[in-house]
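ok, trying the design again with the full structure, not the truncated one.
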């Protein structure tokens, strides 16, 4: 498949689903996976910040999540 699509982690982060984000991170999801193919880069951390999901933002940062450069 060409290009990239939102990851499950990014979707859960965007929705503010703390339990799902926590589970995925604990089981090895990459907190820094992001997509830049269609418009601005999108990442789990950026998605959580856009949704004002502060608990999810804090959790992602515990796993060293960063915004795409």
């Amino acid at each position: 498949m060409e290009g990239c699509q939102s990851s499950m982690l990014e979707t859960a982060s965007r929705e503010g689903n703390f339990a799902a984000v926590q589970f995925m991170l604990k089981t090895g999801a990459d907190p820094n996976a992001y997509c830049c193919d269609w418009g601005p880069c999108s990442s789990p951390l950026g998605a959580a910040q856009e949704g004002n999901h502060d608990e999810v933002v804090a959790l992602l940062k515990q796993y060293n999540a960063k915004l795409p450069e």
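Keeping the full-length input from now on. The CA atoms of residues 3 and 38 lie 8 Å apart.
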